UniProtKB/TrEMBL annotation:
Domain of life: Eukaryota
Protein name: Uncharacterized protein
Biased composition (Basic and acidic residues): 212-245
Keywords, sorted A to Z: Coiled coil, Golgi apparatus
């Protein structure tokens, strides 16, 4: 019975014992797989600050270009307004001066009707000259206004071209910024997926370690049981040998006793047979 239990215990040990190949595969799986997974995760984490810095630089550059554009447009508009005001102020001053001289001449003619014809002629000439000056001033002002209008239109076209160029650059920067943002979003999604995959493998590794510890504990328990059984078998074997030795000694003693008894009985029988063969004489008795 004890021998059967020992064989059953050995079969259980062989059934749960891991082979050396399984141990090597588990070791290679845990040592070589996880570093390869963690390397791209670390690279992605390092690329995130660079993408964020690029995005911040694009925003700063866009704001700077907008401020520069607004400042330049305001400066050019201010210069054009000053030139236009100065141009408009010159004909107005000339008109005012001519009107003042004309009024003075007319009043002089009305108040001094008794003056000489020469003086009247001078006043008339002065009025004519003033009128001619007004017409000339108006012509010059109109020509100057046209030049200013052309200059303003040219400046406006130039500003519109600059604004269109800036808007095109801003649009291009915005598209690049959106692309960088999309890349950043994709990187973050990939990072989350890699993180989940890493957690899954970490959990699998924990389960493998737990299973390994459990099997090691069971194996240690079985080894202890086997050692106890071996000790028990050794003790029983010694007891059996002792009992066999004692049984052998008893058997020899019994045989000796039996032989002695048989010898006694044989001797007694011989004596009886002799007595029957040679009966005693009465006188001899």
């Amino acid at each position: 019975m004890t021998t059967k239990n020992s064989r059953s215990t050995v079969r259980r040990m062989d059934a749960i014992r891991l082979s050396p190949i399984d141990g090597i595969l588990i070791h290679l799986h845990t040592q070589s797989l996880f570093p390869s997974l963690l390397s791209p995760v670390e690279l992605i984490r390092r690329s995130i600050p660079r993408l964020e810095d690029t995005e911040q630089k694009l925003r700063s550059f866009r704001n700077l270009r907008q401020k520069e554009q607004i400042f330049r447009v305001n400066q050019e508009n201010g210069s054009l307004k000053q030139n236009l005001n100065a141009t408009n102020a010159a004909p107005s001053a000339a008109r005012s001066e001519i009107s003042k001289v004309s009024n003075n001449g007319i009043n002089a003619l009305k108040g001094k009707g008794d003056q000489s014809a020469n003086r009247q002629h001078k006043s008339t000439s002065l009025v004519k000259n003033c009128y001619a000056g007004i017409q000339m001033s108006n012509g010059l002002s109109s020509k100057h206004d046209e030049e200013l209008a052309d200059l303003l239109e040219e400046k406006t076209r130039s500003l519109e071209a600059i604004q269109a160029s800036h808007e095109s650059q801003i649009k291009q920067f915005k598209m690049e910024l959106e692309k960088e943002h999309d890349k950043l979003v994709n990187v973050q999604i990939r990072l989350q997926e890699e993180h989940k995959l890493n957690e899954s493998f970490q959990e699998e590794l924990k389960l493998l370690k737990s299973d390994k510890d459990k099997r090691s504990s069971e194996l240690s328990k079985i080894r202890n049981e086997s050692n106890e059984k071996t000790k028990e078998i050794s003790r029983l074997q010694k007891e059996l040998n002792r009992q066999e030795d004692e049984s052998s000694d008893d058997t020899m003693e019994n045989m000796k006793r039996l032989v002695a008894t048989l010898e006694k009985e044989n001797t007694h029988l011989k004596i009886l047979s002799l007595l029957h063969l040679h009966p005693p004489i009465d006188g001899e008795e």
